[in-house]
Design a protein that fits this description.
This protein is α/β, with parallel strands linked by helices. The protein has 12 helices and 10 strands. It has helices at residues 38-52, 75-78, 90-94, 99-108, 124-131, 158-166, 168-175, 183-189, 201-213, 217-230, 235-249, 253-263; strands spanning 2-4, 13-19, 22-28, 59-64, 113-117, 120-122, 134-138, 142-144, 181-182, 194-196. Belongs to the enoyl-CoA hydratase/isomerase family.
Amino acid sequence: MSQNLDSAATEGSVTARRDGEVLRLTLNRPDQRNALSHAMIESFIDALTDAVVDDSLRAVHIAGAGSDFCAGADWVAANSGTGERPRAGALVRRTPYLAHRLIELVHTIQLPVVCSVQGWAVGLGCNLALAADFTVASADATFWEPFVTRGFTPDSGASWLLPRLIGLTRAKEMLLLGEKVSSTEAAEWGLIHRAVDRRELDSASEHLLTRLAGGPTVAIGLAKQAIHYAAQATLTEAMTQELFSLELSCRTVDFKEGLAAFQERRTPKFRGR
């Protein structure tokens, strides 16, 4: 059953739908290329925050309605009001609780996140796709970080995500030169998981979601956490973190099922517990 998380139709909406053990989040503002209004970002954050504590969920899917994934934050609407300009420091006060919080949740939630991208993925929309665990993009998709070309500096994790995914040189091409990157090139660089024909986008995403939602959810979440921790840690620190994750995962029902399946030479049937 669908739930409209934003009643202001003119500002777009984020639709959350439970599909078995998968939470499907759809950006629904196709006439504006799914540019994210403040209300949409707040709704998105609320949905992910609820998912964090929902033990019945085992995967998250993010997609955009219409021909594009997301044209980024709606800066035009945010800066075209007729009232007084915000106080100095407004961005510093607000952004950590909006765009930055959204990226942080997608990146750190202990559920696997799959993102389906078609058309444009720009700015915040691009970073949203890069923060997911697996992003599948159609052949017509374009990834673009236009911050500097519009006269301001990157936000929403661009300066952190890009160098780690594709290295400094390519990150500078995207962030300092504003170079647009096709889905094929993005896949070759390691920016995204896979580029496919537009007709195969849904099936490729569903294949991933089926595998991930059928896996040992606790172990997947802990492994995701360990990978991110290790990116900033020494080898010794990373292995210590692995030990804590191992201790927790070995206490799960799915660990016992994995061992039993191995001994019985059959495919395990994980329950996400």
